[in-house]
Amino acid sequence: MTRGSGPRRRRLLWIGLGLLLAELVLVAMVTFRRSKPAALDWDEIVPDDPRVAGIFATLEHDGLQAAMDSLVRQAAADSVVLRGGHQLAHALGRRSLASNGGDPSVIAQCRPEFGAGCFHGVVEAFLNASGGIDMPVLERMCTGAGGTRGPGAVYECMHGLGHGVVGVLGLDYNRALGYCDALSRPRFDTSCQEGVFMEAIDNAIATAHGAGAHAHHDHGGAPGSRIQVVSGDPYSPCAAIGDAHAASCWIFQGFLILRAARFDPAVALQVCDAAPEGRAARCYQSIGHQLTGLLQRDDAWTLRQCGKGRPEMAAECAAGATLALNAIDWSGAHSARFCGAAPAGWRSTCYDAAAASLTYYAPGDQVERFCVGSGPEYADTCRQAAAAAERT
Predict the structure, then answer these.
(1) Average pLDDT taken over every residue of the chain
(2) N or C: which end of the chain has fewer CB within 10 A?
């Protein structure tokens, strides 16, 4: 899946994160709803809306794959549907599980478009229907999602587990992280953790603003067990998270910092400079990640924004950008172009981070091609970074 022109170029705007992009786009829309009256009210896009009712009829008659095709076509023709695509894909995932008699194997028909909302919807529906959390069963469901498509679908599913588990637990993020930690591989755990933090932070912001674009219904979690975003503290909530889970939280802290800085990258990076000890690099990565995923600007613009930070840290911002680019383009082609365009002093850090991230989305031979393409100066450390990531 490489970036092209025309419809393929537009399609990249619908593919997200992993770990990390479409959900925060929704948060951004909620945040600015009061200042932008024309912004979409996500509650207006519901399955029986005339603009999308045919998509759900297709699900009932022709199955999930055909319904996803229909959603892609409708989103290309209607910007309101495009902007609501993640939530609609969630709904398709939820309904497909019911249509499939509760059999979670339907997740193998999900696709990464619209921020992998289909994966997340199936997982959440399965958790809600099962009445309990059996992580070995859920892990088998996710590992079965990959098929011949490579690892990307597996990790999107693991990310969806984090969303679903913390929702079922009433947003009790500490309990949810414990369930993530029970998964058999650290890589699975990391993807699950990121889903937990994304969901918990998303809901904390939405609650604070009196809106819930993606907020769960209350499942009974005590208020003290939920993530709290402290107004005026640029490092809340992630500064309070212990080392075992901190990296998974801090990849989202950049959004909160950017929001407080009115999306001024130079100001946001200055905030990262004063981050708690040991967190500045991840903070820089988060700023690069969020700028890339949220704003969808060209590579030259993103590199210029990263350059507004401290020279010795700017490469970390570029590294974070590749995390978003790989979530958008599972082939690694875009992150390869991005790193190749970066200043020479940043390239090793950029290629290494991109290679490590790409192991979550692409098979090994594709990662090897990425490293070969980085050039002889960077290929060896690129391979080492990918190998180290694969061992987790």
Answers:
(1) 84
(2) C
For helices 173-181 and 152-168, angle between their N-to-C axes, nearest 10 degrees: 140
Cis upstream peptide for 237 (omega within 30°): yes
Amino acid occupying residue 206: A
Strands (E), the chain: none
Residue with tokens 């990565």: 285
Put residue 134 in one of left, alpha, beta given phi > 0 → left and psi -120 to 50 → alpha. Answer: beta
Phi, psi of 15, rounded to the nearest 5 degrees: -100, 130
* Residue scoring higher pLDDT (5 or 387): 387
Structure tokens at 185: 């591989």
Q: Is the pLDDT of residue 49 over 90?
A: no
Number of Cβ within 10 Å of residue 242's Cβ equals 9
Cross-strand bridge partners of residue 15: 113
Of 2-11, 45-54, 99-108, 262-271, the one with minimum mean pLDDT is: 2-11
pLDDT for 209: 65
Residue type, 117: G
Return all residues near 252 (Cβ < 8 A) that are at least 6 apart.
20, 24, 194, 197, 198, 201, 238, 286
In whole angstroms, what is the distance from residue 56 CA to residue 38 CA?
A: 26
**Alpha-carbon gap, residue 286 to 69, rounded angstroms:** 32
